[in-house]
Write a sequence for this structure.
């Protein structure tokens, strides 16, 4: 209910009723949400890489990691998110926007003008790529909330941005926010990931953390907004699997004001991380334990103070527990977390090479990118792999950061130049 | 005596060629159907078709049939309506009955179907993988707050956890049935089974017999409008305290346990004189509004060092708003009793025509509490005709935390649903205080049968969860996406939050 102050000020004629989401499209233009009115099933491939030293890697790295996992997708969705990619605007929220048409752009920009101070608005740089068609209008905006509007709404800038994103995605016809964080961005669309990366000129960006995704949707036409990663503020999520508890997860989130507009499991995971990490201030390892809870029999064997924490986590966040097969990589400005479901029903491989931590659906991606990994391992069910970037504000509790015992360290540089991705 | 217009409902047939003439049927029948004159002679008019004699006849020579008397068809005046008129013309009284509503209202559970996994996500085999049913009953904070313990771990912030919640090994409990309305061996069976199953039994409004004190950790003690058996020790003895406002079988109606059922032990447990009628007023006379309820909830909490306090209500038209008020008044759980719920005695007209189905009540209450952002503040217990593990799974998918079973539990102990609970002559020794009848239930036998029933349903629930591809019951709870309706109208589907099959 907390987005009502914003809603009230929106022109009412543009706010369709949200309750009949099941229905077919209203009016002449579909909203992005309506292109996927039902839950999306599918399999996928994913990767995540983070240099804990904060050194920057070219966007070619995630493209290569995803290109070798091409078979895990069917060309109906690919995408990436990079962190540390906008050093010129580190303190601005950057909105990556997808527009169905110019009117959608006008509507969204009217909202930006009214509630934000926009310091740079420009079309996303892209190049024509064979196989990529029907791209929406792609724009990006570096902005901050208008201080007066912020005062009026009595919200923190982050809350204000979150509510604005939800408002746009659910009420502005034909407009979709692909990402909205600081010093990061999502680059996604319909196509194989290496094509999408090429389309967005990803090789011209440099980031300390990248996540990538290859999508195999089984029951929905691919559409640009539905590709991974999903984002909220600076959190981005790529996901392989199906969350069988989607029904209750989404109802649980609705109680906290989230709108699950896309009908995907992944969106739910993104919102749950946001709820637990940002709003409830849970340490990230506990958030992971809430999302992929230990079994009760394991909790009962834990020593008492810890068992009490776990019991409460499960009892309180039970409706948010992700049940069913999944592997997830969560990227954020402080690093990345990879997590498997409670009984490891989907693949996830991890590796460390010096300060670089990498995860992928297949080891081939790791072997493609890391020339001499110190260690390659299969994380256990429900055991998160956590990488944190030195010097960046991180929600990760430092004492539970991956220890040197677990991953031996040796410094090896990344190759400066990457092979050109072949685009069919 | 003038002749009665009411003809017997059943015909008792004895195959005298096979009959041993042993008189076992005479001895077993609580309704005095049989007299004995060289051989047993049945009086059909007294038979309730409870099958006690059939079950215990060593020669298997007794058959009970419907009395197939033809009445002229009339779609408007059903035979039971005609009989009702004749009976009331004879007696001038309110017709009493036992057990739940037997009218052919639409059963929503029977129009809901569960989902299963195929290909895109795997189903899970509960015989090979963990399949968790544990449930915590009670108020939960909206978020868990932790502080660092200084050693790389965490501990709960002050008052942040669920320590006050009650751990249930499976999301099934026994519904309240008072000592007085049921016999002590029944109460003992329920308590022993609850302890073995890691669940709860509920005293109902008749107090807690001293023999059950050892099982108190598995007992909800009830406070009803008659306040029978309530004192500070009673409140503190149970795992939780329940304020009973209403019952699904008789919303808005009080209770009446006749003096004949108040023997010495019932009188001691209820703290009322032997032989006096135990009358529960329709309302609590200290609860005339929601703020009064809040005061009683907090009085009980103060008296019990903040044990969980729940409130039981009958599902009535405005149940969502009432439940919301109850949660805001501080209840740790709301117990919703649907209109098919059982009873030891109720006016038939009330039982059959007041209230609403539990399925709609669960859906409306769960959604309202979510809309108001207070769903975490209380658990929902659903009751009122949970007939199988399918009903259990569907109730949980609609949003219930736990279900309570009463009629099914009594059936496990022998009940055949003859609807004669109010007579005090139950042949199966369940709803009676006659010592020759109550001793028919051996608590050890009863506990084993109740344990078997709940265990069987739990296994079936695990199979259902496995088919759904989840391995913990909390992932089904409120997950209406896993339900589809078949043959329900659109409006009902909307209230349930369930899409039609095929969508």
């Amino acid at each position: 209910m907390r987005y009502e102050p914003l809603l009230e000020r929106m022109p009412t004629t543009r706010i369709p009723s949200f309750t009949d989401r099941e229905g077919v499209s209203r009016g002449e233009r579909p909203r992005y949400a309506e292109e996927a009115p039902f839950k999306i099933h599918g399999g996928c491939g994913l990767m995540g890489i983070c240099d804990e030293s904060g050194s920057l890697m070219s966007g070619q790295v995630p493209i290569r990691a995803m290109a070798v996992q091409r078979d895990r997708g069917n060309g109906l969705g690919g995408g990436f998110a990079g962190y540390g990619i906008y050093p010129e605007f580190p303190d601005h929220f950057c909105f990556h926007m997808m527009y169905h048409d110019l009117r959608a752009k006008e509507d969204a920009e009217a909202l930006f003008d009214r509630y934000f101070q926009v310091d740079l608005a420009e079309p996303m740089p892209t190049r024509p790529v064979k196989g990529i068609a029907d791209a929406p209008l792609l724009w990006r905006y570096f902005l901050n909330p208008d201080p007066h509007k912020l005062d009026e709404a009595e919200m923190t800038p982050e809350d204000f941005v979150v509510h604005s994103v939800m408002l746009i995605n659910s009420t502005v016809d034909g407009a979709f926010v692909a990402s909205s964080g600081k010093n990061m961005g999502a680059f996604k669309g319909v196509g194989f990931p290496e094509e999408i990366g090429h389309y967005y000129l990803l090789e011209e960006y440099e980031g300390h953390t990248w996540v990538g995704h290859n999508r195999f949707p089984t029951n929905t036409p691919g559409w640009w907004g539905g590709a991974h990663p999903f984002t909220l503020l600076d959190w981005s999520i790529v996901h392989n699997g199906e969350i069988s508890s989607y029904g209750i997860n989404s109802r649980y989130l609705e109680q906290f004001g989230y709108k699950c507009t896309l009908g995907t499991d992944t969106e739910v995971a993104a919102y749950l991380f946001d709820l637990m990490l940002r709003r409830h201030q849970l340490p990230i390892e506990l958030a992971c334990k809430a999302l992929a809870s230990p079994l009760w029999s394991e909790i009962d064997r834990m020593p008492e103070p810890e068992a009490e924490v776990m019991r409460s986590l499960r009892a309180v966040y039970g409706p948010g527990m992700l049940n069913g097969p999944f592997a997830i990589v969560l990227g954020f400005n402080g690093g990345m977390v990879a997590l498997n479901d409670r009984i490891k029903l989907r693949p996830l491989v991890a590796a460390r090479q010096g300060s670089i931590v990498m995860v992928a659906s297949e080891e081939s991606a790791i072997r493609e990118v890391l020339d001499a990994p110190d260690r390659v391992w299969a994380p256990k069910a429900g055991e998160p792999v956590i990488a944190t970037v030195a010097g960046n504000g991180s929600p990760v509790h430092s004492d539970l950061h991956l220890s040197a015992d677990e991953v031996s360290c040796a410094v090896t540089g990344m190759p400066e130049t990457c092979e050109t991705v072949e685009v069919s | 005596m003038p002749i009665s217009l009411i003809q017997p409902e059943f015909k008792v047939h004895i195959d005298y060629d096979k009959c041993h003439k042993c008189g076992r049927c005479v001895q077993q029948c609580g309704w005095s159907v049989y007299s004995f004159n060289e051989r047993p002679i049945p009086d059909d008019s007294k038979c309730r078709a409870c099958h006690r004699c059939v079950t215990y006849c060593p020669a298997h020579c007794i058959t009970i049939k419907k009395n197939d008397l033809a009445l002229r068809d009339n779609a408007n005046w059903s035979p039971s309506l005609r009989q009702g008129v004749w009976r009331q013309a004879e007696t001038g009284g309110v017709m009493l009955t036992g057990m739940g509503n037997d009218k052919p209202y639409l059963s929503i559970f029977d129009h809901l179907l569960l989902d299963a996994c195929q290909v895109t996500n795997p189903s899970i085999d509960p015989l090979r993988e963990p399949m968790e049913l544990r449930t915590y009953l009670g108020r939960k904070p909206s978020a868990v707050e932790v502080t660092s313990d200084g050693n790389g771990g965490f501990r709960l912030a002050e008052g942040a956890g669920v320590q006050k919640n009650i751990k249930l090994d499976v999301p099934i409990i026994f519904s309240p049935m008072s000592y007085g309305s049921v016999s002590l061996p029944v109460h003992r069976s329920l308590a022993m089974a609850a302890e073995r199953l890691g669940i709860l039994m509920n005293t109902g409004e008749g107090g807690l017999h001293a023999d059950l004190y050892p099982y108190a950790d598995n007992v909800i003690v009830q406070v009803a409008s008659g306040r029978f058996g309530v004192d500070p020790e009673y409140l503190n003895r149970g795992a939780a305290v329940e304020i009973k406002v209403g019952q699904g079988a008789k919303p808005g109606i009080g209770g009446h346990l006749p003096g004949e059922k108040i023997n010495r032990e019932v009188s001691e447990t209820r703290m009322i004189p032997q032989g006096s009628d135990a009358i529960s007023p329709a309302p609590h006379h200290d609860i005339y509004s929601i703020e009064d309820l809040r005061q009683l909830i907090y009085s009980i909490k103060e008296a019990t060092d903040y044990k969980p306090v729940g409130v039981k209500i009958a599902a009535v038209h405005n149940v969502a708003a009432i439940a919301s008020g109850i949660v805001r008044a501080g209840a740790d759980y709301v117990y919703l009793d649907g209109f098919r719920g059982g009873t030891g005695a109720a006016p038939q007209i009330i039982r059959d025509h007041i209230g609403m189905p539990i399925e709609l009540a669960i859906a409306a209450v769960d959604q309202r509490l979510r809309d108001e952002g207070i769903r975490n503040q209380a658990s929902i217990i659903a009751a009122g005709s949970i007939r199988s593990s399918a009903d259990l799974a569907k109730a949980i998918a609609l949003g219930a935390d736990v279900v309570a079973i009463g009629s099914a539990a009594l059936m496990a102990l022998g009940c055949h649903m003859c609807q004669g609970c109010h007579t005090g002559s139950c042949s199966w020794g369940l709803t009676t205080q006659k010592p020759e009848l109550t001793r028919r239930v051996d608590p050890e036998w009863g506990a084993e049968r109740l344990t078997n029933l709940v265990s069987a349903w739990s296994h079936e629930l695990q199979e259902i969860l496995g088919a759904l591809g989840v391995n913990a019951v909390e992932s089904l709870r409120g997950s209406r996406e896993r339900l589809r309706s078949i043959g329900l109208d659109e409006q009902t589907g909307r209230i349930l939050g369930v899409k039609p099959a095929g969508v």
